[in-house]
Amino acid sequence: MSMSSDPTSIWATREQILIGQGNVDRLDPGTGPGRYARALDALRSSGRSLALASFTFDIDEPGSIVEIPERVETVSAADLTLHNGQWSGSVVSTGYDDWTSGLAGALETIAADVVEKVVLTRQVEMTFSDDLDIRSIVARLISAEPDSFTFAVDGLVGASPELLVSLRNGHITSLALAGTAVEAAELSSDKMDREHSLSQSSVEMGLAPHVMALDVDDRTVLQFGDLKHLATRFDGRARPETTVLDVLASLHPTAAVAGTPKDTAMKTIKDLEPRSRGRYAGPVGWFDSAGDGEFAIALRCGLLRGREATLYAGGGIVAGSDADA
């Protein structure tokens, strides 16, 4: 199937590639935990079947995007035509000084027993010789990261390894990833174990109110691209009338992107990070009018605007963390 016009938004997994097409209703569902319910209400009142969404990391920050396309097409990777040329770019700001300064502050806060873990973000600013072609970038990401969740929503483009929640036909799935290294042997440490345990517990607590029973798989190691992660998968049967937006409201942010305890970690992030994350590390995915849907955490991504890009990366900081590592 060929695309009849430029896509408004894209969501791609091994199972399917969804393309928003045609006229699109675009809205910011506002702030606070009620933003998820307002997003679902907007879709249902539109008379359309499916929406793609990218929510801000901080629920109190405006700027979330819900796109309700006129139609949604399922396509193949071959339909996402590649840009024939190459982009040349240069780094405007590495964000390294802010990163090291923030990490030092985080370690002081951890040493003072204010938080046990805090997740910090580094932002890199780049400029390119020509406008960035989002379809081409998505196609390259699908090819390079076939097991990831590839997305493009209002300029936020990336390939995330981390499934926040999937709800389909009453079945809930989630995947906790925390503890990251190039070599598997590097994952065998008290630091990695502690970081993953905190994230696993936060996901389990977030899912608990919405399931009648929850199966927790044994911890394993999964590889996405060049990186390996400690991973725990969760499967459960959803309580009647539960929607994927209900689960988002209690699940986000997990310890994998905020820290522990959550409220204190969120305050620490605001104190230490000089710039807003925007939609980085927020939920990104799709939902339908029945309340089913699939959301990843917006990781390994960038905000693309014409010839300019802001690239994001993050790391979980616990006692013993090293800036360069």
Task: Explain what the structure shows.
This protein has 325 residues and is an alpha+beta fold. 23% of the residues lie in helices and 39% in strands. The chain contains six helices and 18 strands. It has helices at residues 35-46, 96-111, 134-144, 190-207, 244-251, 262-272; strands at residues 9-12, 17-27, 50-54, 65-75, 89-93, 117-128, 149-153, 156-160, 163-168, 171-181, 211-216, 220-224, 227-238, 259-260, 283-288, 293-297, 301-305, 308-317. It starts with 8 loop residues before the first strand and ends in an 8-residue tail after the last strand.
| Percent of sequence in beta strands | 35-45%
Q: Given the helix and strand composition, which structural class is it?
A: alpha+beta
Biggest sheet, open or closed, and with what strands and sense? 18 strands, antiparallel
Quote the average pLDDT: 91
| CA(first)-CA(last) distance | 45 Å
Counting DSSP H or I runs of 4 or more residues, the number of helices is 6
Structural topology:
Layout: E1 9-12, E2 17-27, H1 35-46, E3 50-54, E4 65-75, E5 89-93, H2 96-111, E6 117-128, H3 134-144, E7 149-153, E8 156-160, E9 163-168, E10 171-181, H4 190-207, E11 211-216, E12 220-224, E13 227-238, H5 244-251, E14 259-260, H6 262-272, E15 283-288, E16 293-297, E17 301-305, E18 308-317
Helix pairs in contact: 1-5
